[in-house]
Amino acid sequence: MLEHYMIQGSSYASHIDGLVWVVLLITTFWFLLAEGMFFYLLWRYREQPGKKALYINDDLEHAIKYKWVEIPHRLILICDVAVILGAVSVWSEVKLSMPVTDETVRITAQQWAWTFRHAGADGELDTADDIVTVDDLHVQLGKTYKFELAAKDVLHSFSVPVFRLKQDAIPGRVISGWFKPTQAGEFDVQCAEICGIGHGIMPARLYVETPEAHAEWIAHPTHYLAYKNK
Fold first, then answer.
1. What pTM value is reported for the model?
2. What is the pLDDT along the chain (230 residues), one digit of tens a residue?
3. How far apart are CA 152 and CA 131, in angstroms?
4. For a surface tag, which of 3, 68, 197, 202 has the fewest beta carbons within 10 Å of its beta carbon?
5. Residue 105: CB atoms within 10 Å
């Protein structure tokens, strides 16, 4: 199952992973540099026979302070700005933009199940051929979907690790977002918010299907343990 979480299954998953790697590399570099210098200085200025350990108080000479405090501080600030710019760019793409979408799926969270309302053959919601499933989300590979997320009772969180998507569901609100599947297969859907005693039994399955397989499911949803809304 671990390999499923390594798959970049949406159009923006690689951008999120890239940002995570940038943060990881920057923090790892500065951590190793700081700890390496720390242990070097402990060794270099340690107490030795006939020589006390070096002690420097707060009244550092300006040259020493500039070299060991101000220069690293400014370099770290530059790294911080780079991370912030990357984070704002990714956040804007995933959360603030709404591209032209091909279809809408309505998602309702409740203790302790997910209900998905899919458009039927006409591609529109709230018509006679809508398909409603519990704990099974069916989408087509390469389509851009808008989702409308709501909660019936308490806070939930719609999490699709393969998409790198996580969105809280708040009672009384309908929250919109989007995703574009780029990898066919069967994947996990989770609730990532502690929502009561049954939180641990609230998984669902995501089926990303080829156009042919998805058309077959639309035509015969009951064959896939789904049911048509009456």
1. 0.79
2. 555 568 898 999 999 999 999 999 999 999 999 999 889 888 887 777 877 777 766 666 666 666 777 888 899 999 999 999 999 999 999 998 889 888 999 999 999 999 999 998 888 888 888 899 999 999 999 999 999 999 999 999 999 999 999 999 999 999 999 999 999 999 999 999 999 999 988 999 999 999 999 998 998 776 444 443 43
3. 19
4. 3
5. 19
Cα Rg of the chain (Å, integer): 26
Residue 26 φ/ψ, nearest 5 degrees? -65, -50
CA dihedral 11, 86, 158, 8 (to 10 degrees): 40
Delineate the domains of the chain, giving CATH numbers in brackets: 2-96 (1.10.287), 103-228 (2.60.40.420)
Cβ atoms of 147 and 189 closer than 8 Å: no
CB 130 within 8 A of CB 119: yes
How far is the C-alpha of 161 from the C-alpha of 155, rounded, in Å? 19
Q: Which of 107, 102, 103 is nearest to 125 (CA)?
A: 103
How far is the C-alpha of 192 from the C-alpha of 174, rounded, in Å? 18
Residues 6+ positions from 130 with CB-CB distance below 8 Å: 117, 118, 119, 120, 228, 229
